[in-house]
Each structure stands twice: as C-alpha cells, then as structure tokens.
Design a protein that fits this description.
Layout (H helix, E strand, L loop, with lengths): L8 E6 L4 E7 L10 H4 E9 L2 E11 L4 E6 L4 E5 L20 E2 L5 E5 L4 E5 L4 E2 L11 H5 L1 E5 L4
Antiparallel strand pairs: 1-2, 1-11, 3-4, 4-5, 5-6, 7-10, 8-9
Length: 153
C-alpha cells in the first residue's frame, strides 16, 4: 500500500546550479478528493520573454476533470471546473489535420493544449507530414525544469 506523504507540488529548479528555486504545494481547494493527485499528469508553462516572474502554469486533472492554474507572480493557484474538461470515453483516436504518417523514434514528448492533453511516445505517434514547416517545440523543459512532485513511502 502506498501512502502519500505530502501534497502534490510544483517544483522549480535552477538548471545551472541545480538549486531549488520554489516549491508550491497545492491547496485543499485545488485537490477536490483523494483521486485528484493521481490525475495530475501534465503541466504547461506560459511565460513571456522579459517577464519571467509573471509566468503561469496549467495543470490538467484527468481524475476529477478539471484544471489547476498557478500564478508565479502571486504564488497562488485556483481550480477551474467546466463541462469541456469532461473526457469522452468513446474518443480514442487523435489526428492532426487528417494527414498521418508513423515516425519511428524512441524520443518522448508531450503535446499539451489547454483543453486537450495528449501523451505519447514518438514511436507510436503519427504526425502530419503535409506541412514541411511542422516543428516540435520542447519549450517546457528547455526554459525551466518544472514538475508535479508527489512523494510516496
């Protein structure tokens, strides 16, 4: 039996020094029940050049169908609930512009949209090859190393 020892957190490290910059534990209003921590599967950072202190993080909650929005500037978070976050269990395929081709690679990536969270291994992912200017941007981990931290004993 696993026992959660601390609340889920946003953890920010300085990649040059490996020093902890910030740890923010989610509040009880964000964690609606005991299923919530298991549903926090992805984080997207919204940061503007020259305004890094005014960044936002969007964390999806697949278990209880919501989203948590964190503000670095105010060091606060709030939970959003909306019918658009409810997943459709019958929807299994995700396509890009209807033009798909398999890419064989062992690289991992995460594509995140505010309302659609899709995880994949590029080995299994199909990507639209119709557009030669289609690029992958690994913005999340190149700027800051941020993760949702859960500690279990």
């Amino acid at each position: 039996n696993r026992k959660q020892l601390r609340k889920p957190s946003i953890v920010i490290f300085d990649l040059k020094t490996d020093k902890l910059i910030l740890r923010y534990e989610f509040n009880d209003a964000d964690l609606v029940n005991e299923r919530t921590p298991g549903g926090l599967t992805s984080i997207t950072v919204d940061v503007t050049k020259d305004r890094c202190d005014d960044a936002y993080a969007y964390i999806n909650d697949l278990a209880t169908e919501g989203m948590i929005v964190y503000s670095l500037k105010s060091n606060t978070s709030r939970r959003l609930n909306h019918p658009s976050f409810v997943h459709d269990e019958a929807a299994l395929n995700f396509t890009v512009a209807g033009c798909l081709e398999e890419i064989a690679s062992s690289d991992k990536a995460a594509f995140v949209h505010m309302y659609i969270i899709v995880f994949f291994l590029l080995t299994w992912f199909y990507i639209c090859m119709c557009n030669k200017d289609f690029f992958f941007f690994f913005f999340l981990f190149t700027i800051l190393y941020i993760k949702i931290g859960q500690t279990y004993k």
